[in-house]
């Protein structure tokens, strides 16, 4: 289930000249009409609402009746997807073609959960066995102590996806901490006993500056010298892990992009340690079910494709460049951060994947989020009253805390209507209490929060299927996840050269700071680098 989140859709594949396509032009003309149509009118059309609903794998459902679309909009978007050969591009990805053009790599994270690759399965088995050994106390430190805690050292994709799934599914057996930022060491290790802590160093490259610095600090904290009994590595580099002094390597491969590694060893090992082998296996199964749906479902019923097309519609045709992701579940607190990286590192691009020419339409969305209802007490005022921001609501038909579930559900189902419909326009309210509505959202519902949702109780549950205000048109709907992408935009969603630029710059400035320190008498106070140093082209 959770991996529905991770499916990144790389929407079309025609870098330049997208705006010139007849399908694009037709959508532009249609958008003018839709901009002038209020969502209040749209949600009153029961037939429309019934159609804008999808069922996906693992019991998930998606209600996108509160997007500013009609069935005509969707036809036009499907036409664009066809003309851009989205499904053919999906097939190329699944076949393992080297679609990450700038790095000349395949993009095969889906192979991590297919169980068809014996190398992958061997690593999964190794992870699950090791994790169960640690959890049961069969595997101990050299001093004979059972492990009480796990410290996962990693950053970016080696932290965000893994932390999200651990926080979503962990039990109380082991304390699990994540250490990413270079100044987070003390907080991350506070209260842990180094004699009983397992350090997992997760880094595909095993060269990322922050991770390696924290990993060295962790070794010193464990006692220094040979601490290999309490250090393991998740990486694509066997040599580097061995040189670092870890006792075990849980490998993954260069065809797994860092931000897609929630189902590779950096995600699977912490999850198996925090929630057990069974949960980790079900998590993989859920991801495989979503992959199968993505690979097989027709365009019009394909959840990741429809969600991606809605993203393109909002961004490129309705000029809505942000998206809020709001899961109504405290355990999904780190979910928005994971989606944020998936979307913004993947699709924050400005040139075509193949021709490397400037795109003629902007790609990517700004993604941010917090769990509901916390988010209602922070940025929802803006969502209701200021510029429109499409919202992805995520919820569960059965919550992890039964006593709180009705409160959560009431809010989850109230917000989409409040955003879409707003307040009455009859002039009875003072201006500061009037809300125009017409703000798009969608709702993704899962049966329950679990590694792999089993049966969807949607059809036989006790949820009302009538909305008090809108009648049957507002069926409570929809699923769970959404990622965005750019097969339509024609970009390379699989590299992250902008991040690399920042890394290069930081290395330059760090050298400057060290040089300044060694020639300075003032302790730790360093001058701002000269402007020339900020420009990597002058290096
Ligand atoms: O931030 C860039 C990036 O390469 C991400 O894509 C990746 O998730 C992160 O750094 C960590 O990289 P590594 O796993 O190699 O330490």
UniProtKB/TrEMBL annotation:
Entry keyword set: Gluconeogenesis, Glycolysis, Isomerase, Signal
Signal peptide: 1-17
Record's keyword annotation contains Isomerase: yes
Keyword flag Signal: yes
Domain of life of the native organism: Eukaryota
Gene3D superfamilies (UniProt xref): 1.10.1390.10, Glucose-6-phosphate isomerase like protein, domain 1
Top-level enzyme category: isomerase
EC assignment: 5.3.1.9
GO biological process, one term: gluconeogenesis
Any single GO CC term annotated in Swiss-Prot or TrEMBL for this entry: cytosol
InterPro entries to which the protein is assigned, alphabetical: G6P_Isomerase, G6P_Isomerase_C, SIS_dom_sf, SIS_PGI_1, SIS_PGI_2
Residues spanning the membrane: none
Pfam families: PGI
Known pathway: Carbohydrate degradation; glycolysis; D-glyceraldehyde 3-phosphate and glycerone phosphate from D-glucose: step 2/4
Reaction catalysis annotation: alpha-D-glucose 6-phosphate = beta-D-fructose 6-phosphate
GO molecular function, one term: glucose-6-phosphate isomerase activity
Classification via PROSITE patterns: P_GLUCOSE_ISOMERASE_3 (PS51463)
Family: Belongs to the GPI family.
Protein name in UniProt: Glucose-6-phosphate isomerase
The species this protein was found in: Chrysophaeum taylorii
Lineage: Eukaryota, Sar, Stramenopiles, Ochrophyta, Pelagophyceae
């Amino acid at each position: 289930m959770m991996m529905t989140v991770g499916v990144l859709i790389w929407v079309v594949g025609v870098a330049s000249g997208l705006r010139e396509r007849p399908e694009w032009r037709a959508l532009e003309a249609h958008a003018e009409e839709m901009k002038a149509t209020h969502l209040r009118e749209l949600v009153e059309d029961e037939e429309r609402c019934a159609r804008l609903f999808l069922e996906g794998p693992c019991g998930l459902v998606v209600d996108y009746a509160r997007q500013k679309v009609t069935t005509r909009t969707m036809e036009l978007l499907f036409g664009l997807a066809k003309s851009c050969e989205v499904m053919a591009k999906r097939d190329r990805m699944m076949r393992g073609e080297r679609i990450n053009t700038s790095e000349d790599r395949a993009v095969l994270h889906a192979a991590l959960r297919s169980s068809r690759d014996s190398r992958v399965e061997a690593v999964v088995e190794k992870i699950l066995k090791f994790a169960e050994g640690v959890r049961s106390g069969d595997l101990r430190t050299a001093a004979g102590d059972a492990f009480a805690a796990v410290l996962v050292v990693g950053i970016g994709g080696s932290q965000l996806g893994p932390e999200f799934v651990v926080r979503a599914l962990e039990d109380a057996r082991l304390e699990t901490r994540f250490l990413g930022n270079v100044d987070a060491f003390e907080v991350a290790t506070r209260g842990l006993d180094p004699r009983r802590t397992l350090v997992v160093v997760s880094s595909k490259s095993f060269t990322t500056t922050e991770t390696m610095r924290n990993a060295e600090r962790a070794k010193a904290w464990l006692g220094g010298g040979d601490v290999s009994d309490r250090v393991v590595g998740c990486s694509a580099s066997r040599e580097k892990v061995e040189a670092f002094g870890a006792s075990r390597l849980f490998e993954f491969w260069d065809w797994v992009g860092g931000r897609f590694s929630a189902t590779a060893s950096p995600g699977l090992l912490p999850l198996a340690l925090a929630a057990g082998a069974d949960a980790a296996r079900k998590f993989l199964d859920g991801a495989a079910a979503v992959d199968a749906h993505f690979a097989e479902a027709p365009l019009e019923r394909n959840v990741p494709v429809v969600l991606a097309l809605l993203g393109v519609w909002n961004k490129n045709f309705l000029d809505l460049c942000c998206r809020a992701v709001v899961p109504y579940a405290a355990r999904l607190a780190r979910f928005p951060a994971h989606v944020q990286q998936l979307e913004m590192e993947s699709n924050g691009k400005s040139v075509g994947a193949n021709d490397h020419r400037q795109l003629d339409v902007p790609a990517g969305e700004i993604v941010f989020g917090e769990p509901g209802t916390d988010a209602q007490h922070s940025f929802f005022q803006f969502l209701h009253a200021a510029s429109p921001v499409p919202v992805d609501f995520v919820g569960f038909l059965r919550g992890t805390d039964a006593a709180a579930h009705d409160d959560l559900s009431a809010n989850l189902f109230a917000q989409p209507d409040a955003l879409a419909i707003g307040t009455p326009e009859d002039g009875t309210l003072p201006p500061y209490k009037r809300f125009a509505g017409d703000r798009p959202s969608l709702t993704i519902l899962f049966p329950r929060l679990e590694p792999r949702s089993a049966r969807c109780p949607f059809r036989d549950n006790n949820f009302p299927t009538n909305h008090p205000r809108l009648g049957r048109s507002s069926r409570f709907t929809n699923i769970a996840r959404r990622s965005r992408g750019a097969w339509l935009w024609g970009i390379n969603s699989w590299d992250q050269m902008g991040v690399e630029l920042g890394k290069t710059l930081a290395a330059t400035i760090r050298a400057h700071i060290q040089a300044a320190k060694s020639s300075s008498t003032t302790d730790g106070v360093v001058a701002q680098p000269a402007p020339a140093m900020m420009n990597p082209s002058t290096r």
